[in-house]
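Reading a protein record of the kind used here takes little practice once its layout is understood. Each number in the token line that follows is a code from a learned vocabulary of backbone shapes. One such record is shown here in full, so that the layout can be seen directly:
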Amino acid sequence: MNRHTWIALGSGVIFGLGLAISQMIDPEKVLAFLDVAGHWDPSLAFVMIGALLVMGIAWRLQTRSVPVDAHARKLSIPGHGIDRSLVIGALVFGVGWGLVGYCPGPAIASLALFSLEAFVFVAAMLAGMQLFHYRRGTSAS
């Protein structure tokens, strides 16, 4: 494996451990956090605040707007505008997260727990991604 693969693997492991330790892979915990009108559990707010602080520091320290090897790795940098697709996607994402308590990162981390719900969610998410690429006429890499 090359250096980028090791960095990606290490980052993924750290991210997954953070999700597990913070209990963000527990849909009941997430749904309790989202239930602001009922029995609200604000503990995940501290996880989000911590993530925002780390990202804020990293954002201030960054010196480049794109990775050095972005062209070689064929990375595309997304646009900065708010358009219809972004708004609809955000709404669908939010509804899905609110209905089941999973978003993509925690759902993938939950696969390690062999949770049937996580497997169903991830399968549906992947199917939705494939449908998007099929309807758009692009291939998923």
Q: What stands out?
A: Residues 3-136 form one domain. The chain has a mean pLDDT of 85. The two ends are 19 Å apart (CA to CA).
